[in-house]
Amino acid sequence: MYKLNNIELINYGIHAGRASNSNIALSGFLDMPSRLGKTHHDWSDELGTEPYVLAEEIRHGGRDITFYGLMEGADQADAINRVQELYLDMHKFTDLVPLQTPWGTFNVYVKDTVEGKYIGQGWATLQIVFREPIVTMDATIPTGTSIGLYNIDNVGYSDLGAIVTNVKDNFNRPATKSAHFTAYATEGYQVTKMGPIKIVQTLYFVAPDYEALKGNVQKFQQLLAGPGLRVINVDNMERECFNAEGFTVEDIRIMDGQCVCKLTVPLIMVGAGVPVEPAYLLDNYGEAILANIDFIKVDKYALDFITDNDGNRLITNKFEDITL
Questions:
Q1: Could you tell me if residue 311 is inside a domain?
Q2: Distance CA 106, CA 128 (A)
Q3: pLDDT for position 177
Q4: How many domains is the chain built from?
Q5: Helix, strand counts (H, E) of the chain
Q6: Which residues does 298 contact at the CB level (< 8 Å), separation at least 6?
Q7: Is the pTM of this model over 0.85?
Q8: Left, alpha or beta for 285 (phi > 0: left; psi -120 to 50: alpha)?
Q9: Which SS3 state, helix, strand or coil, does residue 115 take?
Q10: How many angstroms separate the Cα of 129 from the Cα of each of 1, 107, 113, 246, 306?
Q11: Are 220 and 144 in contact (CB under 8 A)?
Q12: Is residue 287, in this structure, part of any structural domain at all?
């Protein structure tokens, strides 16, 4: 059931449609908003960027929520009358109004052109973009002890029902910073430092029902929104980074027994973007064995040694240091 300002959309002859590559009529409602204000500063004579990640510096804006509908009329003239009735009611809005959906209630205003297209026999498609200016972020910040591949602040992606399907731009050298110079009769130039490194991850979240899916996405959002820097490992390298642009959630499919969505999140690395030296050891299979000096995992492959992150032998199976 979809309602706008407490009026059921079916009263206008509007049926729920489907968003692109989705089986529900709504998109954008799980997106994480971008931050407001200045989020970092690029010093022209230094590599990378300086993040602004104190608690008082982190504020988030709103998000767009799009409804996809099908308008049913007796004929073309009736369809036009029905959409005009909807538009006239929208014109009466003087403040935020509730958009009630099976996926939550959102306080919104109509942001943009309502796109309507007549498709024949009294039917028309409608695409309505709403803006939710105030997004509540109150989920519990998750904690974890995961180390090694595919974690963020020691919270394993698998603990959130998430699978990493793509990591983009982690091998790139970013563009150089803007040059400032004057020149006459020649091209002119200024050699500048490398800009900040941005890594884009694509994750798929999978859960048995919608509430679990929403809860995991919101936990991930809350983790990213917290003060300070995040430490991620998505390619066997730990990287300090922060989020400034939020994330987008697409391809939502709600089915009995399984719910899926695709989440795309950009993260900016701090400073010169040099990976962090991890405080743990790995075996030959890239799995963490030791954290500092505490034995945390039995090697299931029964190797007679363990290695550091560079593949160098460190300790025999009797835990005797063989590198000294």
A1: yes
A2: 14
A3: 63
A4: 1
A5: 2, 24
A6: none
A7: no
A8: alpha
A9: strand
A10: 18, 13, 8, 19, 55
A11: no
A12: yes
Residue 219 near residue 176, CB atoms below 8 Å: no
- Contact residues for 63 (Cβ-Cβ < 8 A; gap 6+): 28, 29, 31, 32, 33, 131, 132, 135, 246
Half-sphere exposure of 183 (CA within 13 A, CB side): 9
**Do residues 60 and 33 make contact, with C-beta atoms less than 8 angstroms apart?**
yes
Contact 96, 108 (CB under 8 A): yes
Domain assignment of residue 299, given as a range: 280-316
- Vertex 290 angle, CA 285 and 293, to 5°: 155
Structure tokens at 5: 């300002």
Distance CA 247, CA 162 (A): 14
- What would the 3-class secondary structure string for 261-320 be? EEEEEEEEECECCCCECCCEEECCCCCEEEECCEECCCCCCCCCEEECCCCCEEEECCCC
Cβ 69 vs Cβ 17: under 8 Å: yes
Residue of 36, 10, 87, 68 lying closest to 244 (CA atoms): 36
Structural domain includes residue 245: no
Residue 98 resides in a domain: no
Residue 73 CB contacts under 8 Å (≥ 6 apart), including other chains: 13, 79, 80, 81, 82, 122, 123, 124
- For 75, other C-beta atoms within 10 Å of its C-beta total 11
Mean pLDDT in order along the chain per 10 residues (324 residues): 95 95 96 95 75 94 97 94 95 96 97 93 96 93 87 94 85 66 74 77 96 97 95 87 96 95 93 62 55 44 51 52 42
Rg (CA), the chain: 25
Give the Å distances, CA to CA, from 312 to 8, 129, 300, 304, 324: 66, 56, 19, 13, 12
Residues 6+ apart with CB under 8 A from 227: 53, 54, 55, 58
